Amino acid sequence: MDTTAFQIVQLLLAEERYITYQHLAKEIDVSTRTINRIIKHVQDYLNEHAIPFSIQTGKGIKIELSEKERQEAKTKLQNENIEFIASEERKLIILCHLFKESDYLKMNYLASKLKLSLGTVDRTLQQVEEWLNSYQLYLERERGKGIKIHGTDMGKIRGMAEIITQNIEMSCIHTNNRPFVTLDTFDKKLTGQTRELLISLVDFSLATEVKDLIESFDDDIKSIFVDESYFNFILVLSFIIDSKQKKDKIINDNVKGGLEGQSEAFQYIKQLIFQTERHFKIKIYQEEQDLLLGLYLSARRQVNTENTLKSTDSYTLNMAVILIGYIEEELGIHFNYQSDLLKRLMIHLRSFINRSHLMMEGSNQYLDLIKKDYFGTFEAVRKSLLKLGNVIPQPVSESQIGFITMHVVATMMEMNNNQSKIKVSVVCMSGMGTSKILIETLKQKFPQLDILGALTIDEVDEITLVNNKVDLLISSVQLETSLIPTILVNPFLPTSDLRRIQELLDTINTRKSISYKSDISLQLNVNTKQIFLSYMDTIYKLINHFHYQADISISSISELIKYVASIVTDNFIKQQRLIKKLKRRERYGSSLVDSKGVILIHARIDDLLYLGVIHVNGLTYQTEEGLINIKSVIIMMAPEEKDDIVMNLFGNISTQLVQDQDLMHVIRNGDENTIITTFGKKMIATI
């Protein structure tokens, strides 16, 4: 029995219902024609092992066994030691071969290595190319020669390091007194052939030498990195050195450059680079230095900006924060404390205090215009300054009130303009070079966008982004989100990507422009009525199948994830995929919603649509502040196929989770009816 037949039998044993040939083709990533051809071999295997089955036109095929018999058949199948290669592993094997070879690879060679048809290899290459594009790499095809990777050396280095890092066993990466890379370093689910291929990409002795050099530079360096980032950093530096040694880029001397005025992180990496250059007698160029610095910055535990300000200028920071709070009360609006209003006020207050000590007073040539056009804001600022009392060293003149009013008015105008804009965050691997290219290209092509900045893939926390009203993520790396629409693009934005972005922006604009009010329901046009009914249909499905459970004993996040998968779907294969997705998301710690014990477990998978709340006992969650006792778990599952209605509903619920304390109280303490009623009202309010 070949690998495709083996996979079909596995799928049939996992399901108690009929499975269509189309579904089998999709799951295994082959054509329906291939399934029709292979199904005869499947029947032969089932007959040979006395496994009853049924085939019906229009329904498909199913195995007719009891649960006990089904488990016995699964065990017997595994014991036959048939080694097959799953779709994701096929992609990995092809990538390894492409990275190993500098010359063209024949398609027939890949087909023979994978024991697959040329058609299946060609479909797998589509996935390979999509993965390569996220590193600015491309497949170059030459008739009669085959295929090879085309792109920059930096892209190839990042790509090789990433396919190795993505497939390691986490338990192996920070263990001392063991070889840097062995077969045991990699995921046990991979075949031995694939693990050997991954090892062959790394010069073992060089990587070990680099690791020793880095740790002699700073034996605490591992504590700076998190998760697998340290392993990845060693690989990237090893590949950089290896490429130079192969090209004879050796130098005999290095002159230490000046580090004055640079950030602490820059100086740290620059010193490590100097030490590496001296040890290996090479020159690491600026582009390579930028990559290493980007890996370092994106892997470190970042210090909160506000805490940094407090430690350096707590006096003016506190004064600015208090002043903004008073102005908010007077005007009845809310400013974003992370916006540049806080920074501008700090700078102005600092200079104002300095001038006050020197008995200097500046004039404000715009004072009359400010008092005329923005008198209400001017008065709010004046009253707020009076509330500061003894914090400010002397009475504040109207000129100074006018200057602060200008800062407030500018922020209010920005807020008003932003309401009509689509807010976008850009995501790339390191948050540096690639994102800068993408941001500048987006500014040129889509000036109407409000681009909030660049994020590394590890910084993508959907709860925070939803709270910041982000409408869209534009990413140069593969990224899975459940609450915010995401589009994968090439950083240089070819025509096809520009068209896809514009189509998505049109959809978002349409959604944002739709507002429903009960007193104008009779004026709704046909299209709007249809959208309204679509929303109500989705809400009905979510409420009708809402899942609630109380007093569930759960002792770990891993156990919780498995439990959630079991209640969301009874399909074993879907459960395993969902567990894998949720565990990967948990590595970034993005689930905690409320410090009083509420977390959100969410994902996009297959055609699932699911909403629920469970109350748990015995579960703790590790944060930087310590352990938190988890009492409530919110579960959201959305289909993989994009659905603007689901995204809008779930996005609004997520916004409410971080803004509405009454909702959080209901989730923590409410019974089933109260929780369902509250969620229903929140979703209807979205419309």
Summarize the structure in words:
By secondary structure, the protein is an alpha/beta fold. Among the domains are: 3-79, Arc Repressor Mutant, subunit A (Orthogonal Bundle); 305-418, PRD domain (PTS-regulatory domain, PRD, Orthogonal Bundle), CATH 1.10.1790; 422-513, 3-Layer(aba) Sandwich (Rossmann fold), CATH 3.40.50; 523-686, Mannitol-specific EII, Chain A (3-Layer(aba) Sandwich). It is built from 28 helices and 13 strands. Strand 1 and strand 2 form a beta hairpin. Helix 23 packs antiparallel against helix 28 (672-686). Residues 250-261, 301-312 and 513-526 have low confidence and may be disordered. Keywords: Activator, Repeat, Transcription, Transcription regulation, Transferase. This is Transcription antiterminator. Residues 201-306, 311-418 form the PRD domain.
What key phrases describe this protein's structure?
687 residues, alpha/beta, Arc Repressor Mutant, subunit A, PTS-regulatory domain, PRD, Rossmann fold, five-stranded mixed sheet, four-stranded parallel sheet, globular
Mean of residue pLDDT? 78
CATH 2nd-level architecture of the domain at 523-686: 3-Layer(aba) Sandwich
What is the spatial order of strands in the main beta sheet?
9-12-13-11-10
| Separation, N- and C-terminal Cα atoms | 54 Å
CATH topology of the domain at 523-686: Mannitol-specific EII, Chain A
What is the helical fraction, as a range of percent? 55-70%
Category by helix and strand content: alpha/beta
Describe the global form.
Answer: globular
The major pleated sheet works out as: 5 strands, mixed
CATH H-level superfamily title of the domain at 523-686: Mannitol-specific EII, Chain A
Query: Uncertain regions: pLDDT < 50 for 5+ in a row?
Result: 250-261, 301-312, 513-526
Q: Rg, please? A: 29 Å
CATH class identity of the domain at 523-686: Alpha Beta
Q: Please report the total strand number as a whole number.
A: 13
Helix tally equals 28
How much of the sequence lies in strands comes to: 5-15%
Domain PRD: 201-306, 311-418
Protein name: Transcription antiterminator
Keywords: Activator, Repeat, Transcription, Transcription regulation, Transferase
Domain PTS EIIB type-2: 422-513
